[in-house]
Amino acid sequence: MIELAFSILAADFAHLADEIARAERGGGTIVHVDVMDGHFVPNITFGPPVVAAIRPITKLPLDCHLMIEDPDRFIPAFAAAGADMVSVHVEACRHLNRTLQFIADHEMKAGVVLNPATPVDMVFEVLPMVHHVLVMSVNPGFGGQKFLPRSVDRIDHLRRLRHDLGLKFRIEVDGGIGHDTVAEVVHAGADMLVAGSAIFEPGKTEHNAREFLHLARSATSRTA
User: Fold this and answer.
1) Whole-number Å distance between alpha carbons of 58 and 77
2) By residue range, what is the domain housing residue 214?
3) Which residues face 112 on adjacent strands?
4) Residue ranges of the alpha helices (H) in 26-150?
5) What does the alpha-carbon distance between residue 16 and residue 141 come to, in Å, rounded to a whole number?
6) What digits encode the pLDDT tens for the residues 81-123?
7) Which CATH number does the domain housing residue 104 bear?
């Protein structure tokens, strides 16, 4: 099933509870939280306290994308804050297998992230242990960037690997996903779509989410 993971990075934080509720009414099923530390990526955003503040205002799963150095140090804190899914970057983990297992040990769904220049085969060995693979279709750090077309081939590569290996991991895509790119990434095999700027808009958030999902679910995924 195609799911919308709406990114609160683009939301109005003065009315965050209302913003989340509007996106949910439009069909959004996952709250995507972009965690940036100003070191691994050139921006600073949220940490475990923000996740803890969000947890009481929605029953939707919280999908935390850790764009941070040494993520192992913070995994327990995100678990305690109420995160449901945590994804980490290949380059940020000294021992990727151990980090993913650490996430699972804290009863969260583990994901691995591929930056635009990271070869898909870098995650081959951990595919059996992840809930999702997050394909970055922009260079991480800032919202509102333009979609990188090469990402479509990378999504398709993962889709074929998933089929050939008989696995069931989800394929998430993040960066520049809007009404003009959503059908293309779904056709390639993505089934968890992160969108922020395309969703959150004063007075139009619910409508935007509903229209985005309609376009996504109208697209036909390639047969394996």
Assistant:
1) 19
2) 3-218
3) 88, 133
4) 48-54, 75-81, 96-105
5) 21
6) 999 999 999 999 999 999 999 999 999 999 999 999 999 999 9
7) 3.20.20.70
Classify 96 in phi/psi space as left (phi over 0), alpha (psi -120 to 50) or beta.
alpha
**Residue 44: pLDDT band by 50, 70, 90 thresholds?**
confident
Say how far residue 39 (Cα) sits from the centre of its chain.
20
Q: Which of 37, 63, 84, 174 is catalytic?
A: 174
Cα 26 from Cα 34, distance rounded (Å): 21
Catalytic residue among 34, 37, 84, 156: 34
How do 192-195 and 3-7 pair as beta strands? parallel
Tell if the pTM clears 0.90, that is, is over it. yes
Catalytic residue flag (residue 34): yes
Is 186 a domain residue? yes
How many domains does the chain divide into? 1
For the record, the structure tokens of 189 come out as: 């095999």
Tokens 């109005």 -> residue = 12
Is there a catalytic annotation at residue 174?
yes
- Residue 224, in any domain of the structure: no
**Structure tokens, 87:** 């994804």
